[in-house]
Design a protein that fits this description.
35% of the residues lie in helices and 17% in strands. By secondary structure, it is of the alpha+beta class. The chain has a domain of 71 residues.
Length: 114
């Protein structure tokens, strides 16, 4: 008898199989993109060890293109704040009938203490 019971074992095995299917699907999609337009390099990023777990599922052609694996920490990241950059060109300076200049955004500096 298993420590958690057969039901718990089956539950965790379903999660494991679903994760493997997901990796295989992602690897197939990357290969499809590579056949449509060849990739110069590939950087795999993910939370924890999930990114490295994708590597065994990649096609051998794509293994040669892997430049590295990045481990992300979403709890340590914050959504970037953006501030509107003042426009140097006034609308009246543009030629009549031309499209207005697009708004440009710059990353705002982080506040002290955060």
């Amino acid at each position: 008898m298993l420590a958690g019971g057969y039901g718990e074992h089956n539950y965790h095995m379903r999660i494991r199989v679903e994760r493997q299917r997901h990796y295989a699907h992602v690897a197939d999609r990357i290969f499809q993109i590579h056949t449509q337009r060849p990739l110069a390099g590939l950087v795999v990023a993910g939370i924890g060890v999930d990114a490295a777990a994708l590597l065994p599922h990649l096609h051998t052609y794509l293994h040669d293109l892997v430049l590295g694996v990045v481990r992300l920490n979403p709890s340590g990241s914050r959504r970037p704040r953006f501030a509107k950059r003042p426009s140097r060109c006034a609308r009246s300076e543009s030629a009549p009938g031309s499209a207005p200049t697009p708004r440009r955004y710059v990353k705002a500096p982080a506040r002290a203490g955060r």
